[in-house]
Amino acid sequence: MDNTNAPKMMIDCYLDWVKKEGIPVAEGLGIDLFAVETKPWPRFGVNGAAAHLKGRGDFISMFVLEIPPSAATAPQQHLYEEVVYVLAGRGSTTIEVADGRKHSFEWGPMSMFAIPLNAKYRLFNGSGVESARLVSTTNMPAVMNMFHNEDFIFKNGWQFDERVGASKYFTGEGDFIPVRQGNHMWETNFVPDLATIELKDLGDRGAGGTNIQFILADGTMHAHISEMPVGTYKKGHRHAADYHVMCVTGTGYSLLWYDDKDLNRVDWKHGTVFAPPDQMFHQHFNTSAEPARYLATAYGSLRYPFTESKRRSFQGAFWTSVKEGGDQIEYADQSPRIQQLFEEAMKKTGVKSQMAKFLPPQRP
């Protein structure tokens, strides 16, 4: 059948671009980023792949880069934002800004950094024997589908000087901006180790949890890190699609559901990522003998929410009960199965549950 004169319609410019790039695409509700197959990606000069989570939404997606020993990516510059997390390996990043100055910093496992919008940069593997594997969350789908012009995205000379920030933001330093519980911010471009950065109390989300929100390269991309103490779990909650949740420390699992009679389970460890679909309730459980931290990336930051859904979440829906118009299920309202499944999981690991002090008294 000749489709030469077929009308142009239902085009996804981002997916068409990924197909043309010729890289593998991993898909699923949850993905082990260490297991994602990568192949040569001419644009970057190293191996790469795309990771398309079921709940990635309309605005963001992930790319995995595998940099061979002593190798480096080809120089890059693009009109989309990205937040990079180091899964394995050690190396460095060099960023060149509009006036010719260069900022360089060294990274290792569990480092996170952001590239200022449209700045030139390269990634270097500092090891002569081991590969480096990094994953980036980007808003490329939004940008590509908005402009559908590759030259505009990859060959645009406009410089966003205001996105670069202070020189100290490239050294691992930053500025703490106190707001309120759950909204405290750390502004920077580079975090050397997400496993050790200081977090702030977020008791409203349950069981002695802590977190910090990031403002990275003054961008619209969101990132926050949360921690669950040993033997605990967070309260169930929901939000719009696009949050990509990556385990940093510890092991455990998350449950996802629309109907709590049909629970989907994702077991996680360092390198696991999952993205809850739109308004799907989910809940995170730490079953390990150490605090469990996870990094969540999304589109719409605390500074620039971008969507009404993000604005609503950041203004309190995250930690407000569904009974009061919010998006959180309080412990007293959760299905009895939630606690039962957690107790079974803790018996298998031999770690003692600490949830008794946080749960309401059982009815006689």
Write up this protein.
With 364 residues, the chain is mainly beta. It has 2 domains: 13-165, Sandwich (Jelly Rolls); 168-357, Jelly Rolls, CATH 2.60.120.10. Helix content is 12%, strand content 34%. The protein is built from 5 helices and 25 strands. The chain has helices spanning 13-21, 140-147, 150-154, 308-314, 336-349; strands at 25-28, 30-32, 39-41, 46-53, 61-67, 82-88, 91-96, 102-107, 112-115, 120-125, 132-138, 175-177, 185-188, 190-191, 200-201, 210-216, 221-228, 236-237, 244-249, 252-257, 264-268, 272-274, 281-286, 292-299, 328-329. The strands form 5 sheets. Strands 2, 12, 13, 15, 16, 17, 19, 22 and 24 form a 9-stranded mixed sheet that branches. Strands 1, 3, 4, 5, 6, 9, 11 and 14 form an 8-stranded mixed sheet that branches. A 3-stranded antiparallel sheet has the order 8-7-10, with no helix packed on it. Strand 20 and strand 21 (264-268) form a beta hairpin. Helix 1 packs across helix 2 (140-147). The radius of gyration is 21 Å and the shape is globular. The chain starts with 12 loop residues before the first helix and ends in a 15-residue tail after the last helix.
